[in-house]
Design goal:
Number of domains: 3
Distance between the termini: 61 Å
Structural class: alpha/beta
CATH superfamily of the largest domain: Cytidine Deaminase, domain 2
Strand content: 25-35%
Order of helices and strands: EEEEHEEEHEHHEEHEHEHEEE
Number of helices: 7
Shape: globular
Number of strands: 15
Radius of gyration: 20 Å
Strand order of the largest sheet: 10-9-11-12-13-14
CATH topology of the largest domain: Cytidine Deaminase, domain 2
Length: about 290
């Protein structure tokens, strides 16, 4: 239709807000009317991880770059390094901070006594916000390692409690409320109390932020906790959950076949299509119980 091509005028785009959202001017186009209005979109930008350790020399080296929503950058870096097996506890990190000289860079200095396998350059990655294992050269080895993980038998969660969690999480998703375009990962205890939440334009980044925050708070492993995902449960997200010791992983969306197989093999309780009245339980349903009267 004539005149419909331009939706956002460059002069009308503001600088990214600290909240990770940005104001834009849009054309609301309908069959019977069209008008300009203000809207907000999620910010997506690069973040480079700089890693410093005596094994790597005197200067920090680039461990990789990912696309993310700004905010919680330090937790995102910690969660990613934990998922990669480079850090295992808060004490492994000597210092972590966002660069004041270079925007979109986070510096992580490891303690000299930390031992880790020096990855070849091909293993370091440049990942999109939707990417979980981008750059992994040994996918079979990564799958085998994750499948060898075993989640210990522990507490249980009442099914009505699990089904109530999406509404609780949604009410706390500030960026999603502004934009409608941001994923979330939320941490609950087995009674359904919300402990922490992280948001990002990328599903994997949201979980990395949540895991990084949990590690630095001394909560790992999460054997007595529930993690709720706002989207689908892919293999990579199950892998990250296993690494963090999560007992119950629930998702608003669907799981993949590899995610289901991995959850079944490792003892993780995996639920998908979680709604207010029902869900699908794909693995280890023994942790879900009927409501006590």
């Amino acid at each position: 239709m004539p005149g419909m091509e331009t939706v956002v005028a460059p002069s009308q785009v503001e600088a990214p807000a600290p909240s990770g959202t940005m104001n834009v001017r849009v054309l609301r186009a309908g069959l019977e009317s069209r008008f300009e209005k203000d809207d907000r979109v999620a910010v997506e930008g690069p973040l480079e991880y700089m890693l410093q350790h005596p094994m790597l020399g005197y200067e920090p080296i680039s461990f990789g770059t990912t696309m993310r929503t700004p905010g919680d950058d330090e937790n995102l870096a910690v969660g990613l390094l934990y998922g990669e097996g480079i850090v295992n506890q808060p004490g492994d990190i000597d210092a972590i901070e966002s660069s004041t000289r270079r925007p979109n860079v986070v510096n992580v200095r490891l303690r000299p006594e930390v031992q880790f396998e020096l990855q070849p350059p091909a293993r370091r990655f440049s990942a999109g916000s939707s990417c979980g294992v981008c750059g992994t050269t040994g996918l079979d080895a990564a799958i085998a390692k994750a499948a060898a993980t075993r989640i210990a038998e522990g507490g249980t969660v009442e099914l009505p409690t699990l089904l109530s969690l999406p509404d609780v999480m949604r009410k706390q998703q500030a960026k999603f409320g502004d934009t409608g375009g941001v994923h979330a990962a939320a941490l609950f205890d087995l009674s359904g109390s919300l402990l922490s939440i992280a948001e990002d334009v990328g599903r994997h980044n949201a979980l990395d932020k949540l895991v990084g925050k949990s590690l630095m708070a001394g909560r790992l492993p999460l054997e007595e906790h529930i993690v709720l995902l706002s989207g689908r449960a892919s293999y990579e997200l199950v892998q990250k959950a296993l690494r963090a010791g999560v007992a119950v992983l629930a998702a608003i969306g669907a799981p993949s076949s590899l995610a289901v197989n991995l959850a079944r093999a490792s003892g993780l309780t995996l639920a998908g299509f979680v709604r207010s009245t029902q869900c699908n339980v794909y693995s280890n349903p023994q942790r879900l119980t009927a409501a006590r009267h």
